[in-house]
Amino acid sequence: KSANPQWREQFDFHYFSDRKDMLDIEVWRKDNKKHEELLGTCQVDITALPMKQTNCLELPLEKHPGSLLMLVAVAPCTGVSISDLCVCPLGDPSERQQISQRFCIKNSFRDIKDIGFLQVKVLKAVDLMAADFSGKSDPFCVLELGNDMLQTHTVYKNLNPEWNKVFTFPIKDIHDVLEVTVFDEDGDKPPDFLGKVAIPLLSV
After folding, report:
1. How far apart are CA 24 and CA 15, in angstroms?
2. What confidence tens digit (pLDDT) does each residue in 141-180 have?
3. Exposed, middle or buried: residue 165 (CB in 10 Å: 0-12, 13-18, 19+)?
4. Beta partners for 81?
5. Mind listing the domains of the chain with CATH numbers?
C-alpha cells in the first residue's frame, strides 16, 4: 500500500564478460497471490559504469510513471568460477599445494574473512521426473551458497542429463548450506521444480 516503497535490500550477481552487459529490472505490484501487474521496467548498462566504486542511479521507468533509486557497484569477482572437468581449478598439483599452504593452521588468522572456498563437481542426474508431455524434461541445475548462485547449462529432452561442470565458491560463513536444485526449463514460463538437496558445509 505504498507509492514510494523502500526495500533497502542487497543482491550480489556474478557478472561474467561473456554474458550480456545489460542489467534488466522490473517493478511489479501484487494484489494477491494470483494477480500481478507490471509497473515498469528499466535497464542499466554495466559496461558504462566505473569499476570499484558505488554508483548512485535514479532510473526512470520506461512507459510508466515513477523512477527507481539504486546503488550499483561493479567489482572484480574473486574465487567464483565455472569450468569444465578437464580444466578443473584444483586439478593442478602445484595449485593445490599453494591452497593448502594458504589455509594451513599458521596462516588461519592472517585474513579472518578468507575462510576458504568450496569446489563442487556437478556430474549428472539420474531418473528425473518427466515434466513435459513428451515424457522428457529439459533439466538444468542451480547451486546456491549464501547469496551466491551459479547454474549449469540446460540439457534438452533428457531424464538422465550429464553436465560435467565444476563450480567454485568463496566461503563467507562456515555455517552456510549448499543448496542444489534441479529445474525443468519451460520457455518463457517459470521453470518447473524437479528436486532439491541441501548440504551443510560443516558436514563436508
Report:
1. 13
2. 999 998 788 999 999 999 999 999 999 888 888 899 999 9
3. buried
4. 168
5. 22-74 (no CATH), 81-203 (2.60.40.150)
